[in-house]
Structure formats: C-alpha cells, structure tokens
Write a structure and sequence with these properties.
By secondary structure, the chain is an alpha/beta fold. The chain has 2 domains: 5-86, no CATH class; 111-275, Nucleotidyltransferase, domain 5 (2-Layer Sandwich). It is 49% helix and 11% strand. It has a 5-stranded mixed beta sheet, sandwiched between helices. A hairpin with a 5-residue loop joins strand 2 (144-152) and strand 3 (158-166). The protein is globular, with a radius of gyration of 21 Å. The termini are close together.
Length: 302
C-alpha cells in the first residue's frame, strides 16, 4: 500500500474518470467535477481527516490542488453532500468495478483468483474496548458497526462490502457479499470460516455463481448428526478429517488467513474507529474506506 497522498489522489482520479460522468447533472454549477469529489474524499479517508480538515489541507497545499486541477477549494458541506450522493449503497459499485478493472490491467488478479469472506467490527468511538477493559470500566454500548467483505487473497483487494450492526451472526451477510464480489471477478475458489457453514451457501457459490470450489469447515453447532445429509457439507467432513500437517487441503484453507491480514492492514493504516454518528453515515463511511483501501493498493503498483 502506498503512503503517498499524491499517489492516492492520482489513482482515485483515474478510477473515478472511468467509473463516473464528469458532472452529476446537466444543470449543475460545474464548479467541481465528480472525479475531484471522489479524489478529495479518498484523500480525507487516507489522512484520517474530517471535512473541514481536508479543506484546510487543500487550501495550504498548492501541489495537491494542482494534482486535482482545482481553481478554488470546495466548501466542506459540498464534500459532505458529495459523499451522501456517491457513497450510498449501490452507488459505490461502479467505483469498485473500475478499481478491479485497473487491477486486472495491472496483473493483480491474473490467473485463478481466490476470495476469502470474513467480517470485522469497527469502533463507534476512538476509545477501544480493550482500553476500557484495562481501565476496569464497562463499555456502555455493545453495538458496533460490522463490515463483511470478500477479499482477494493474493493482493488484499476488497471485492465487496456489506455493512450491518453487531454483535450478530455473520452468516446472513454471506450471500450479498459473494454476489457483489462475483460482479468484479470470476472467482475460482472461495474460502470462509465455520461461521458461514450452510448448504445453501455452497449451492449459491457453486451452482448459482459458477465458483469451482468452496472451502468452509463444518460447524456442528454443539449438536446434530455426525454425518451431514447434504452433498457439499459431506464433502467438507471428508476434507477436514485429520490429515498430516502440510497436506494440500490444509494449505488451501490456510489462505483464508489472508483476509485477517487485510483487516489488520486496513485498521492500522485507516484506523479502527468511525467518525460518523448515524447508521446511514457509518455505512457510507465504510464504503469510502473500502474504496480508499483498494486505491492505496492500486497506487502502490501503478
């Protein structure tokens, strides 16, 4: 991942120019393009600033204004409204699609791409739960924003993002995450942990989306048959029986940990807390974080 603000701006502009029209409406004032809005929002997320902070930075840094082609600096409310329009659910899909198009051109997703699905929690405030526990206090709110993604295991690009509220079961977000990821790449194999174990998930991936292989360990849920009745869950029992260390199937499933590495990179570089306060705003912020994560990877190889 790149650490250069200039590189993030240029890559975000490149992706936005392919994904979006220059202006949202024929009757707009045409002071700023949608491409400039996307690039500024990506820079805001990259530097962990708020709207006023990124406006002040652009006012002070002529090099960044020149890279964006800005004649003047936008008002912070302009950026807020642009994020509401561009990062709503479904609206950011075009940006993701063209980000993966750039990844294919760069050779990042060549060969037989492999995806890993998992979920992580993002804090609603900057005081972490771990710090609160160390202080001997109780965390008043148990709710947090949960981000479910499908991650390309070779490059750590995030192919989809589903935002929900935790703590909750991970399984219901699986279909939406996989279907969204399938729009961006023809996946050869999909990996997930036992939280996503269900026969209909295997059938969706293999029969509905054309994914050749799914590797999801069996979750016996503390009861039930030792030998499942359904086809694909039976395959998982056979493949996850005790075998010698280093067997091929264990090596294949071991790549699932790449999604944990992607989450680690994401939180270290972009932070583990969200600035937004409403659920709708947190969802948009998560979509913007995922787009910025992919832009940082693309900028590093561009």
């Amino acid at each position: 991942m790149t650490k250069s603000p200039q590189a993030v701006l240029q890559q975000a502009l490149r992706v936005a120019r392919e994904a979006l029209p220059e202006y949202a409406s024929r009757t707009s004032r045409k002071d700023f393009t949608q491409h400039q809005h996307v690039a500024i929002l990506a820079l805001k997320t990259f530097l962990k600033l708020d709207y006023r902070g990124v406006v002040a930075l652009l006012a002070d840094c002529g090099d960044l204004r020149d890279a964006l082609g800005l004649a003047k600096v936008p008002h912070y409310s302009t950026l807020c409204k642009a994020e509401q329009r561009l990062m709503k659910k479904g609206g950011s899909g075009g940006l993701q699609r063209h980000a993966f198009h750039c990844a294919r051109e760069s050779g990042l997703t060549a060969g037989k791409p492999e995806a890993a699905v998992d979920a992580t929690g993002l804090e609603s405030r900057y005081t972490s739960r771990y710090f609160v526990l160390r202080q001997g206090k109780r965390h008043r709110s148990r709710r947090y924003t949960k981000l479910t993604v499908a991650c390309h295991t070779q490059s750590h690009l995030l192919a989809s993002a589903v935002v929900s509220t935790g703590p909750s079961n991970d399984s219901p977000q699986f279909p939406e995450a996989v279907v969204a990821a399938r729009r961006h790449a023809a996946w050869d194999r999909l990996l997930a942990d036992a939280a996503f174990d269900a026969e209909h998930h295997h059938r969706l991936c293999r029969e509905g989306l054309g994914i050749r292989s799914t590797v999801i360990p069996l979750n016996r849920r503390g009861r039930g048959r030792q030998w499942p009745k359904t086809k694909y869950r039976r395959q998982m029992v056979k493949r996850f029986r005790k075998r010698r260390r280093g067997a091929r199937h264990h090596r294949v499933y071991g790549q699932r940990w790449q999604v944990e590495s992607a989450f680690s990179r994401h939180k270290r570089l972009l932070g583990s807390a969200l600035r937004s306060r409403s659920d709708a705003a947190r969802e948009r912020e998560c979509f913007l974080r995922v787009f910025t994560h992919n832009v940082m990877i693309l900028a590093a190889v561009a």
